[in-house]
Amino acid sequence: MSQNKGVAVESLWPTPKIQRSGATGPLLRQERAERTREQILHCAARIFAERGYQQTGIKDVADEVAMTKGAVYFHFPNKQALAIAVVDELYSRWPVTLEAVRGKGLSPLDTVIEMFNAATVAFLEDPIMQAGTRLQNERDAVDVELPPPYVDWTNLISMLMREAHQQGQLAQHVDPDVAARVAVAAFFGAQHISDNLNGRADFAERWREVRDTLFPALRARPSLATDPDRPVTRG
Amino acid sequence: MSQNKGVAVESLWPTPKIQRSGATGPLLRQERAERTREQILHCAARIFAERGYQQTGIKDVADEVAMTKGAVYFHFPNKQALAIAVVDELYSRWPVTLEAVRGKGLSPLDTVIEMFNAATVAFLEDPIMQAGTRLQNERDAVDVELPPPYVDWTNLISMLMREAHQQGQLAQHVDPDVAARVAVAAFFGAQHISDNLNGRADFAERWREVRDTLFPALRARPSLATDPDRPVTRG
After folding, report:
1. Is the pLDDT score of B234 beyond 50?
2. Which contacts (CB < 8 Å, 24+ apart) does range A138-143 have?
3. ipTM of the complex
4. Mind listing the domains of chain B with CATH numbers?
5. CB proximity under 8 Å: B 185-224 to A
6. How confident is the model at residue B223 (pLDDT cuts 50, 70, 90)?
7. Which residue of A has its CA nearest to B192?
């Protein structure tokens, strides 16, 4: 299993609550169906992440989840539907993660950093994130249209950067939407390069470099007029 | 055709000198063979860039270049060899571009910016760059090992950043290798996102945002002790 590699964040990423059916007594049929669907989805994500879209078949997923192909087809009519479901599942997690990070009561700019920390952990540990990203990279080979990548994420970071701007956290010359786009580009660029060169083994370190280089440049310096720690000097 | 879109740089990118055989009198057999190879390579690049590796066949390349499949096979034994040749051709251009930029006599940090400007133009206009990048993204589908991406480019930018450091151009807290990795991540991340979302239509603008956000943070401020333009003030 891959490791957190020192990114200082507890898991803010929603963990799948997979449970073998029958573990806690009788379940309603609907609940059981949902759990089965979730199990299939997570197995499919692991295989998509490892082998890519073209090398993954419904049969592989069925074998991995120890079901018949028919049982898998009951939930997902084909491989395309599985790929879309993985990407949808990935995108549905960001708002949940944002709520968890909001709960920590950080400033908007530190909320941005914590969101990237959470995404770093997800890239290193979560098959849904790994599979969703791989499917997006292979979107030309995926014979169905996937929801567009980067858009939701950029909008989310833009919203937080605008809050940071309103609260005077950004340096005066910084446009919050530009700051969001540059941060997203640097983060996903570092991830993409690390994934290509060494399977993300150094990604946590590469993200820390982006964070420590970029964010001090975005942040407002303490105002001389209002900084209570300003040393008193003679004029 | 795509446009330069306002990146302020003349083409520093080596242009292919393709010429139809027979245009300037008799050519030595060797020269003619080299030109034919170059023609095939550039046609293949255009098709790889447009359709991707799997949707490109030797037959498509032969049709595009108006030759028989046999003529293409004489130069490239198979599609894998064509893909490797495109990537090799791409990588061979950076040192040539660096020499052209060096000729402008810029400081090391401005040489870095000019190299990224040249790469931006290449992403927008040059099929070799577009095809090489697409093949790298599809490397799992390419059934032969390609030379690794990003490594040469990161080394080149690191070398320039170290020069910038030696000449006192970098802010004191900036590690030149970190600066190189972060700049490369932000540049290629912006390119990747722009390519995914709108076929690079906004890439020149996205690169300018990266440049104007990141580079001022890397650059040393003029020292108060040595800046000859320092305004004289009363203490």
Report:
1. no
2. A138/A52, A138/A53, A138/A54, A138/B138, A138/B140, A138/B141, A139/B196, A140/B52, A140/B138, A141/A52, A141/A53, A141/A54, A141/B52, A141/B54, A141/B138, A141/B141, A142/A53, A142/A80, A142/A83, A143/A80
3. 0.85
4. 80-218 (1.10.357.10)
5. 185-190, 192-193, 196-197, 206, 209-210, 213-214, 216-218
6. low
7. A189
